[in-house]
């Protein structure tokens, strides 16, 4: 394709694009949402309606406590900062007036721990030691004297000033931490610091990937479930439910499609029943089938089988009736017409129906796993979602999506192998079939079948 | 019926042709249709598609049924094949009354109706296999039928890989493999292009020569009917009635060169007059406002 044609012929009504362009567009269709996600996450002035607090402070007379890592709205954050500054002004005023405060020591001890999140994020302190006052005390000293420099996040000049002023007081009292020797006048609070952030429900891609890898590879204590176990359990529920639905639904569907008798006998009720949402039977199913996977499988079954019967009967009816007439004139008996004409004739369409219904089954899976004793991947999503650990929820959601998609792609490719006569197989598939069939052909040629 | 003065009377037969017809009527009757009537109930009332249709076909005869569109040709053949039940009348095959479809009456449809999931050979094997013939016997027989229609190279191809003409040859082989006593063909070449249709007609005559089969051929193509048939059953429309059974005076073996023989044209003209009576020719088109007068285009 020459340069001049690069921008031409992209929009042609009802005409296929060349394969290279189709491939490109397929890639873009996946890259586009990911790029959008990255764009929203990493370009600071896009959206970012929240402030993620990096350094927090308690306010006087306010019970709501924010700790580092919390999200507050952009509008509220300056208010928060102002309140803390006001508290500091009150402290300075009291100090100037010379009034002493009861309980100042306890308050000061707590105030010294304001630096803890900073210490943890700089690896100066393991997060389990966040209340190690002795180390934190030295940290105040080191930051005030400039021995340690904060980088992520770095303290604002205002806060550095607070640190120095506080250290001046502290150093005068004692070089090491001792509760008794803490000053009796209140220290100044560090002013809250934060950075713009997206809402907690939209973690950045790198966070999702990192927690995803961590969760999927994590070793869990004995008796707890790994992500692999959960995944296996989910797949089990969906496949058993779907299998039962197929075993029951396909024969009934075919009978309904072939015989008006069965169609009128089954379809009206099926049509009615499918409007009753499967989840409404959840408590009933648990009562009947008790805990474990049985009620879950039953829910997937109920959610799928009624649709399946209707879809299969419709597909059966779509079979070209002239094929049946041809078979009749060739002497086929009714039973032979079903086994030799109807079933082989509808198979490719039936296969595609089942592909679509497997997608349905996935939606029921999530609900099925919530009933009775929560289980599988959904239990993880539920639990982590409740703790607002959305960076742990996303990888699981994506896993379900990828599983469904990959399975569908594989099944769609297999369609060409199973049904070469449908004319949808690619040349690659056709050659593969030829190779696979070769030994069968050789055997049947060398060994004429006995009558 | 008056015929074209420039063409010979269709009733004039050469001695050979006359002798042939004399021998033909002495053969056993393969298919006997008597008083066949078909009425459909529609919201507008009862429509009579076929009204008291009677005719008979002798063994190894090739009879065409022709008529204006809507004359019930297809309904007739579907009743004969047992795919529809008549409102009245009787169909007998070699003296035995029949109802419902059966392997004794083969059918070739306009729309090929090959089983797409079966290869050419498997399609041809279908009838015998349904009748319980072993796979081995059916297989070797199928190969012979496929060879007869000249598709040996394609015996393992699927229908979607074949052209329209090839598909119809497979359909013929499939119908013949059942060794029916009568073969019905419902406008079998109607969906093919003119050239292929012409080829297929010659093929059909070739096959017919080699196989012991009686054929009832439905068509709306005059040339096709005359070229193929011994006799032509001309139907009237609304309701479908037998207008006339015309003996084709064109000698056999037939070839495409006979298409312009006087005897061919004579009988063709006669049937054309039957289907499109001369008095009822299309009225002149009204002169429209945007009409352009051009003396060379008239």
Itemize the secondary structure elements and their pairings.
The complex is a heterodimer of chains A (451) and B (298).
Chain A: H1 19-42, E1 50-55, E2 71-73, H2 76-97, H3 104-112, H4 116-121, H5 133-145, H6 157-173, E3 193-197, H7 205-217, H8 227-258, H9 260-273, H10 282-289, H11 294-318, H12 321-329, H13 334-370, H14 376-386, H15 390-418, H16 427-446
Chain B: H1 15-24, E1 29-42, E2 45-58, E3 62-66, H2 73-80, E4 88-93, E5 96-97, E6 105-108, H3 120-130, H4 135-148, H5 164-177, E7 182-186, H6 194-210, E8 214-218, H7 222-228, E9 231-236, E10 241-247, H8 262-275
Parallel strand pairs in B: 3-8, 3-9, 6-7, 7-8
Antiparallel strand pairs in B: 1-2, 1-4, 4-5, 9-10
Helix pairs in contact in B: 3-4, 3-5, 4-5, 7-8
Write a concise synopsis of the structure shown:
The complex is a heterodimer of chains A (about 450) and B (about 300). Chain A has about 450 residues and is mainly alpha-helical.
The poorly predicted ranges of chain A are none
Distance between the termini of chain A: 60 Å
Q: How far do the termini of chain B sit from each other?
A: 31 Å
Largest sheet entry of chain A: 3 strands, antiparallel
In CATH, the architecture of the largest domain in chain A is: Orthogonal Bundle
Walk me through what this model shows:
The complex is a heterodimer of chains A (about 450) and B (about 300). Chain A is mainly alpha-helical. Chain A folds into three domains: about 5-45, no CATH class; about 50-195, no CATH class; about 215-445, MetI-like (MetI-like fold, Orthogonal Bundle). Helices cover about 65% and strands about 5% of the residues of chain A. Chain A has helices at about 20-40, 75-95, 105-110, 115-120, 135-145, 155-175, 205-215, 225-260, 260-275, 280-290, 295-320, 320-330, 335-370, 375-385, 390-420, 425-445, and strands spanning about 50-55, 70-75, 195. Chain A has a three-stranded antiparallel β-sheet. Chain A starts with 18 loop residues before the first helix and ends in a 5-residue tail after the last helix. The model of chain A has no long low-confidence stretch (mean pLDDT about 90). By secondary structure, chain B is an alpha/beta fold. Chain B has a domain at about 1-105 and about 215-275: P-loop containing nucleotide triphosphate hydrolases (Rossmann fold), CATH 3.40.50. Chain B has eight helices and ten strands. Chain B has helices at about 15-25, 75-80, 120-130, 135-150, 165-175, 195-210, 220-230, 260-275, and strands at about 30-40, 45-60, 60-65, 90-95, 95, 105-110, 180-185, 215-220, 230-235, 240-245. In chain B, the strands form two sheets. In chain B, strands 6-7-8-3-9-10 form a six-stranded mixed β-sheet, with helices on both faces. In chain B, strands 2-1-4-5 form a four-stranded antiparallel β-sheet, with helices on one face. In chain B, helix 3 (about 120-130) packs across helix 4 (about 135-150) and helix 7 (about 220-230) crosses helix 8. The longest helix of chain B has 17 residues, at about 195-210. The two termini of chain B are about 30 Å apart. At the A-B interface, helix 12 and helix 13 of A face strand 6, helix 3 and helix 4 of B.
């Amino acid at each position: 394709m020459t340069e001049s044609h690069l921008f031409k012929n992209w929009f042609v009504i009802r005409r296929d694009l060349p394969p290279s362009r189709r491939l490109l567009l397929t890639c873009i269709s996946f890259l586009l949402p990911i790029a959008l996600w990255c764009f929203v996450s990493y370009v600071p002035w896009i959206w970012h309606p929240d402030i993620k607090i990096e350094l927090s402070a308690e306010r006087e007379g306010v019970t709501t406590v924010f700790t580092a890592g919390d999200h507050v709205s952009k509008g509220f954050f300056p208010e928060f900062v102002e309140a803390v500054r006001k508290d500091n002004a009150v402290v300075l005023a009291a100090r100037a007036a010379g009034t002493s405060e009861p309980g100042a020591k306890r308050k000061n001890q707590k105030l010294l721990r304001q630096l803890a999140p900073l210490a943890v994020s700089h690896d100066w302190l393991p997060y389990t030691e966040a209340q190690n006052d002795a180390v934190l005390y030295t940290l105040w000293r080191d930051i005030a004297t400039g021995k340690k420099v904060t980088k992520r996040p770095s303290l604002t000049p205002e806060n550095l000033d607070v640190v120095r002023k506080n250290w001046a007081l502290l150093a005068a009292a004692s070089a090491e931490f001792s509760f008794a020797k803490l000053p009796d006048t209140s220290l100044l609070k560090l002013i809250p610091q934060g950075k713009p952030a997206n809402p907690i429900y939209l973690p950045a891609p790198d966070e999702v990937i990192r927690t995803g890898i961590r969760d999927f590879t994590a070793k869990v204590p004995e008796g707890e479930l790994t992500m692999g176990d959960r995944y296996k359990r989910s797949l089990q529920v969906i496949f058993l439910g779907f299998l039962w639905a197929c075993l029951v639904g396909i024969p009934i569907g075919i009978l309904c499609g072939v015989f008006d008798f069965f169609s009128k006998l089954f379809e009206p009720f099926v049509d009615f029943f499918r409007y009753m949402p499967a989840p409404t039977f959840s408590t009933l199913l648990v009562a009947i089938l008790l805990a474990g996977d049985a009620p879950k499988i039953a829910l997937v079954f109920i959610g799928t089988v009624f649709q399946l019967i209707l879809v299969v009967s419709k597909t059966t009816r779509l079979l070209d009736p002239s094929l049946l007439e041809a078979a009749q004139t060739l002497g086929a008996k009714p039973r032979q017409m079903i086994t030799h004409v109807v079933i082989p004739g509808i198979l490719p369409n039936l296969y595609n129906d089942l592909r679509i219904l497997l997608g349905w089954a996935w939606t029921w899976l999530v609900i099925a796993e919530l009933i009775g004793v929560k289980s599988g991947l959904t239990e993880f999503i539920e639990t982590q979602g409740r703790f607002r650990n959305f960076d742990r929820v996303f990888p699981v959601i994506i896993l379900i999506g990828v599983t469904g998609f990959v399975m569908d792609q594989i099944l769609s490719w297999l369609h060409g192998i199973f049904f070469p006569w449908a004319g949808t197989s690619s040349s690659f598939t056709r050659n593969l079939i030829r190779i696979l069939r070769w030994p069968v052909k050789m055997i049947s040629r060398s060994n004429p079948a006995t009558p | 019926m008056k015929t074209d003065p420039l063409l010979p009377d269709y009733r004039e037969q050469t001695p050979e042709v006359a002798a042939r017809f004399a021998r033909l009527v002495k053969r056993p009757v393969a298919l006997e249709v008597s008083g066949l009537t078909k009425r459909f109930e529609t919201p507008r009332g009862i429509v009579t598609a076929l009204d008291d249709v009677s005719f008979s076909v002798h063994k190894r005869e090739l009879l065409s049924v022709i008529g204006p569109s809507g004359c019930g040709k297809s309904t007739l053949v579907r009743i004969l094949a047992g795919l529809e039940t008549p409102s009245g009348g009787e169909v007998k095959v070699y003296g035995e009354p029949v109802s419902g479809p059966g392997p004794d009456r083969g059918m070739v449809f306009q729309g090929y109706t090959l089983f797409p999931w079966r290869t050419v050979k498997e399609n041809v094997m279908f009838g015998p296999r349904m009748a319980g013939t072993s796979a081995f016997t059916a297989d070797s027989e199928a190969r012979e039928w496929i060879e007869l229609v000249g598709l040996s190279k394609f015996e393992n191809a699927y229908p979607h890989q074949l052209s329209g003409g090839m598909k119809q040859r497979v359909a013929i082989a499939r119908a013949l493999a059942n060794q029916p006593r009568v073969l019905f063909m419902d406008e079998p070449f109607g969906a093919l292009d003119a050239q292929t249709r012409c080829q297929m007609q010659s093929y059909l005559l070739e096959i017919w020569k080699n196989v012991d089969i009686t054929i009832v051929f439905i068509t709306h193509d005059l040339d096709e009917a005359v070229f193929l048939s011994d006799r032509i059953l001309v139907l009237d429309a609304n309701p479908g009635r037998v207008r006339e059974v015309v003996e084709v005076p064109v000698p056999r073996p037939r070839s495409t060169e006979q298409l312009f023989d006087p005897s061919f044209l004579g009988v063709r003209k006669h049937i054309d007059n039957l289907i499109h009576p001369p008095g009822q020719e299309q009225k002149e088109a009204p002169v429209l406002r945007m009409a352009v007068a051009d003396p060379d285009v008239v």
